[in-house]
Amino acid sequence: MAGRLEGKVAIITGAASGIGAASARLFAAEGARLMLVDTNHQALASLVENLERSGAQVISSQADVARPTEVAAAVDATVAKFGHLHVLFANAGISGRGLVPEMPLEEFDRILEVNLRGAFLCARYAIPQIAISGGGSVIFTASELALVGSPGAAAYCASKAALLGMTRALALDHGKQGIRVNCLCPGAVDTPLLWRSAERLGRSVDEYRAEIISRMPLGRIGQPEEIARAALFLASDDSSFMTGAALVVDGGWTAR
Ligand code: NAD
Question: What is the pTM for the complete model shown?
């Protein structure tokens, strides 16, 4: 049986870890040819090696999504290798915790630079290629914190809410070209990013985990593979009438 992304070419950013790595494995298993982008060269190389061993067609680029020349080069390399581009999963992101009066300006700038400007740059260079390829799907990884607040996370919440705004506007701009633009709003997911947030809040991982679970309607933290399946839905034709939307996959957190 053909995979749900058979014949598709996809770029995934933040692909070396967590949600991005789980998505890379799932997209490859569903037949996509992949360009994986991350700043972490070592983790990226080992993921590519594993995927190639299972027969996937995959290339990678050690690029910082906040740098226009690096993003442009990754998009160019994708089209040079595979001839097309159909899916952009702009997923790279960083967390950041701290009260606004105490947060160094450089930290605020870097959160916005990676989470918002990074997604903007990926869209900027990928969308024209997706249009030339006859249309496709753009997916941003926002967060449940685009929809609700979280103590000590003003900069992160701002960056993710802005992504939601950009999703809606891009959906209007590019729908007629057959390009759908949606964002994913994951809740707490078991990845290094979540546990770095615990550190920043001065909490132990166990304490932080227990607190999240106690308030989570489904009574557990999500797994990266559960977000990857939602990304696959948005990337594939299964979501063919969906654009400008936020897909919330948060174990019920925002229902509270
Ligand atoms: P993660 O830390 O496991 O993975 C993020 C990856 O992005 C890492 O491999 C990192 O090297 C890469 N990256 C960071 N900055 C980059 C840059 N400038 N250029 C290229 N790559 C870069 O974290 P994750 O949880 O898988 O995060 C993926 C996305 O999901 C992020 O946008 C994050 O904000 C979002 N998210 C995560 C959670 C969660 O609880 N884990 C919840 C909601 C949203």
Answer: 0.98
